[in-house]
Amino acid sequence: MSTGNWPSLPVLPDAATDAVVDSGLLPELAHAFGGPFHFLLPDAFTANLRDMRETLNAAGVDGFVFYAKKANKAAVFVERAAAHGAGVDVASASELREALGHGVRGEHLVVTGPAKDPVLLRLAVTHRALIAVDALDELDAVITTALAGPVRPARILLRVLPAAQPHSRFGLTDGELAAALGRCVEAGAALRMEGFSFHLSGYALQPRADLAARLTELCRKARVSGLEASSVSIGGGLPVSYTDADSWHGFLTAQRPAHYHAGKSFGRGDFYPYHSPLSGASALAALLETRPMGGDGSLARSLADAGVKLLLEPGRALLDRAGATVFTVQGVKDRDGYQLLTVDGTSLSLSEQWFNSEYVPDPLLIPRGPVTPAGVFPASVGAATCLESDMLTWRKIAFRHQPRTGDLLLYPNTAGYQMDSNESPFHDLPLPPKVVIDHTDRPRPRWRLDRHFT
Hints:
The chain is α/β, with parallel strands linked by helices. It is built from 12 helices and 19 strands. Strand 1 (2-3) and strand 2 form a beta hairpin. The protein is elongated.
């Protein structure tokens, strides 16, 4: 899509975010905090979780959803997971403690990540968390931890190296997997091998269905050796759609270096796929309906026939429309045919720039007072640091009104990996606070600060 000669990428409608904007609350919060902030919409998280569970039930699949905590540090999403009996995927001792502290049961935790340190393993075994074992030495460490402690058996999954991604640094090769299964049998009562797990890059459904079906068959074989082998975790990888198909494809076709500050160049492959025909629960439904290569029926049927539970670890997909990020414009500079805005934060709070990419969805300009006549006012957005590369938006956004100092810029749908995965107090700037908005169906939304412990 374009506005005049300027490519544009509008986000899909979101009534909850619109209600917050229309309430007039955001300028007051910007004044109160004196800097950028994030606002969170936990009802969206709850709705996304419900939709995934309904999808599993409709397909006749026994499943369990773990929220991938790395996608956002906010406590409120962990609290919602705990309140609704979902699990949490953690990868550090701090994440594990935080999840426990916000009410998640130990047996509803899955511990992922490579080369887990002894403290994390001890906590995981003690609290009966499920551990995704990534290497043979880690398996030995889990067994040793269980034998030395008061709690056993240790609950594990064996993480498999996908054949489609042989250069991944994660997972067990076929030879290592065979050795691991033998050690699981030898460990006896010290270990409960509950199945297998994998993570695949990208969002293609067929490779996920194929590998899940393969691991389902491995569960059957492992049971012959006396192992429980009752679950398969497919990790995350459910896409989020930020915009409609026409806008996305139009944007990709139209955009070129002239549309970016300093002639910055991005190729099609540099961007997250901001439109997906299937996303969230609908992508999960399509995955369950996919027929694995060489199979007689759908993945859902394969799982049900084998009595295998499907474990999911979505992050971004549970956070779709669950929050946004707000900056204040603190400077406006004219350039040849466009303007450079400087806001009161950094691109560390809008993570894509740090992956040589761009967060493409259009930000919303919220004027601080009466607006100028409507028109097309292109502007790029820079950060309040001395780094030339610290740009929130290299693209020249075609704003409908002239941006001014004191206006707000709202970046939509940033809860999933965008708003805090790379944040740091660079220049001693404080980290943006997170504001939880529990009710958007009131004339004046109620808000509170998030209760993240660290």
